[in-house]
Amino acid sequence: MYSDLAGKTAVVTGSSKGIGKGIAERFGKEQMNVVVDYLTDPEGAHDTVETVKANGGQAVAVEADVSKEEGIRKLMEAAVEHFGSLDVLVNNAGFSKGAPSEELSLEEWQRVLDVNLTGAFIASREALKHMKENGIKGTIINISSVHQVIPKVENAHYGVTKAGLRMLTETLALEHAERGIRVNAIAPGTIETPANPAEEQPEEEKKKTMEKIPMKQIGRPEQIAAAAAWLASSEADYVTGTTLFVDGGMTLYPSQLK
């Protein structure tokens, strides 16, 4: 646990399930205030809120489309209204629906870019405004992917957003380092989530997955959450503009992922 995080406020996008839920719940253990964002899963968001509170933090759920400016503003306003400020932003919301590149429609391409990359930009912009205006030495954490450096077949749109997120992270970190605002990314490998349930994979697929992971383990949301808590804390106060890969070693063998 990091004592300096107690009482600080975080917005975690896409936190009704999966990695975002894990991060929000860990922030609860750090006794933080958390704005839980959701779009289509109010029950999951409610569960996240209750777990954050049970863990020792405070939380509120907000329905917001992070690909829209009005959605992002709802989240920022909720942070200030309920908890007085914003110290940490975690851009976690993201998705992908795989398709061969020659069959990928412009609509599908744009939707993934809107959520994964444009949403992260809008949220970062608004958080930076708040931090700058209020003299807050805050932290932004972007949840990227190993696919920011490793191509993923039939996921051109997803890979482009994650590569773009890397450059967004580095650019914003450079711009705001002198103000004490840190911007970093976490790049997960294969993580057990509702969108990626290992138990539903056929045995042959499980075998192929394990062959790509040197540690021979599928990751858990709480492992990503541990990295997020560290990056948000003063323990990482000299770390900015970097990507922390939490992937069991997947990026050591990128050719296996093609």
Describe the structure.
This protein has 258 residues and is α/β, with parallel strands linked by helices. The protein has one domain (3-257): Rossmann fold (3-Layer(aba) Sandwich), CATH 3.40.50.720. It contains 7 helices and 7 strands, in the order βαβαβαβαβαβααβ. It has helices at 18-29, 42-55, 69-83, 106-133, 156-176, 203-211, 221-232, and strands at 9-12, 33-38, 58-63, 88-91, 139-143, 182-188, 243-246. Strand 2 (33-38), helix 2 (42-55) and strand 3 (58-63) form a beta-alpha-beta unit. The radius of gyration is 17 Å and the shape is globular. Pfam families: adh_short_C2. Keywords: Oxidoreductase. InterPro entries: NAD(P)-bd_dom_sf, Sc_DH/Rdtase_CS, SDR, SDR_fam. It comes from Planococcus salinus.
Overall structural domain count:
1
CATH domain topology: Rossmann fold
Net shape: globular
Helical proportion, percent range = 40-55%
EC number: 1.1.1.47
Keywords: Oxidoreductase
InterPro entries: NAD(P)-bd_dom_sf (IPR036291), Sc_DH/Rdtase_CS (IPR020904), SDR (IPR050259), SDR_fam (IPR002347)
Pfam families: adh_short_C2 (PF13561)
In terms of topology, how is this protein built?
Layout: E1 9-12, H1 18-29, E2 33-38, H2 42-55, E3 58-63, H3 69-83, E4 88-91, H4 106-133, E5 139-143, H5 156-176, E6 182-188, H6 203-211, H7 221-232, E7 243-246
Parallel strand pairs: 1-2, 1-4, 2-3, 4-5, 5-6, 6-7
Helix pairs in contact: 1-2, 1-7, 3-4, 4-5
Attribute tags:
7-stranded parallel beta sheet, 14% strand, Rossmann fold, 43% helix, single chain, alpha/beta, 258 residues
